[in-house]
Amino acid sequence: MAARQQNAQYNKMMHTPVHRLIVALAIPTIISMMISSIYNAADTYFVGRLGTSASAATGIVFGLMAVLQAVGFMCGHGSGSIVARCLGQKKPQDASVTVSTGLALVVIITLAITALGLIFVDPLMRLLGATPTILPYARIYGRCILAAAPFITASFLMNNVLRYEGRAVLGTTGLTIGALLNIAGDPFLMFKCHLGIFGAGLSTALSQIIAFGLLFYFFLSGRTTTRLSLRLVKLKAPVILEILSVGMPSLCRQGLNTVSTLLLNIAAAGWGDAAISAMSIVNRVTFMVFAVVIGIGQGLQPVAGFSYGAQAWQRLKSAFVFTVGLSTGVALALALAVGLNVKGVVSAFIGDPKVIAIAAPALVYQCAALVFTPPFTMTNMTYQSAGIAGKATFLSLLRNGLCFIPLILILPRTLGLMGVQTAQPVADALTFLIALPFTLDLFKTLNRRAAGQHTKK
């Protein structure tokens, strides 16, 4: 039975037309990411009813969540990429060793983060940009997130492995149920139980623990190609280094999200809590749009991993070209939808006119730059799925690192508040220009390999 299921999954991943397969894999991932974005936005919305400083605290702790995502995605994408290539080579046992080792590794790393974070919670919140008025709220919210951190990162890993297996629906089911529970839990714990911001943090922590339980059950119940077992854990240097090297682009990408959030909060702090709150809202809304692009790319990743492992170059080329076109069109449509109604979008989060006045133009600038993000995002994801860690890591350093960091340090000093509002859009445009040669080179390489393979046949 297990062998038949594995063969059926292999045939699905290698013989279903790429446009249909990528869309089928992307839809549950997009749903999962959108619901996750909505429940992040729900925290901002409900906490915003406690005041501007409390609302800004969610933006501060969002930086902590980015750290946890960095760890979870590093081990998850590293493990998942290897899993997909192993399954493309029809080596399910090697894939199971990878996911079991990856899960053990991510839990060990996160337990250390939790311990240090709880001991030094106040310095951590200040480092992330909390002002004296924001700190009391950020401290409470941050402790709840730290307590649930091992479950959060383990969920990220399992969800990514399920995607790379081509079983995105299972990953989406676990995370979606957790997200919906959080959305329902926020108003109940915050206002019905009168727990305030602690209720928001507790709701997030409990929902993440439940999501972990569901995802873990899927692996234990035999619904996956890979298996989780302590006997398969190999905490040896070659296995760990392969997971970490392939996952390094995700660590850079997510880690730089934390750094960029920190620097953005510090830059915005010069214009008060209203500016921090405004840019936090802009980041949340932008992420909801960008999440769709990422979701489409995550539909590409398992196809790319399987195809690379099986050396199916024409299939990989077709998948890449289709995904770049689809994601660019979707990004343009969503950017227009949000950009033409920015005040209404921002007002849905908070009614403070000072916050709206700062957030609205910043959101317009960001929407204008979103169309630049799909090509370099898909290029980065394809390189990572193929295990080409060097190029993938460099590309992941661009958007929120090599391009954004100098801009957020320079533009506010020269353009004032407008510099804060435009740093990320300008960084997106620069990233597109720097990454364009890599995109063209990837296409030419795949075209050449596909042509060579066709000639041999």
From TrEMBL:
GO terms for cellular component: plasma membrane. Pfam families: MatE (PF01554). It is found in: Cell membrane. Coiled coil: none annotated. Keywords: Antibiotic resistance, Cell membrane, Membrane, Transmembrane, Transmembrane helix, Transport. GO terms for biological process: response to antibiotic. It is a multi-pass membrane protein. GO terms for molecular function: antiporter activity; xenobiotic transmembrane transporter activity. The chain crosses the membrane at residues 21-42, 54-76, 97-120, 140-161, 168-185, 197-220, 287-308, 320-342, 354-372, 392-411. Belongs to the multi antimicrobial extrusion (MATE) (TC 2.A.66.1) family. MepA subfamily. This is Multidrug export protein MepA.
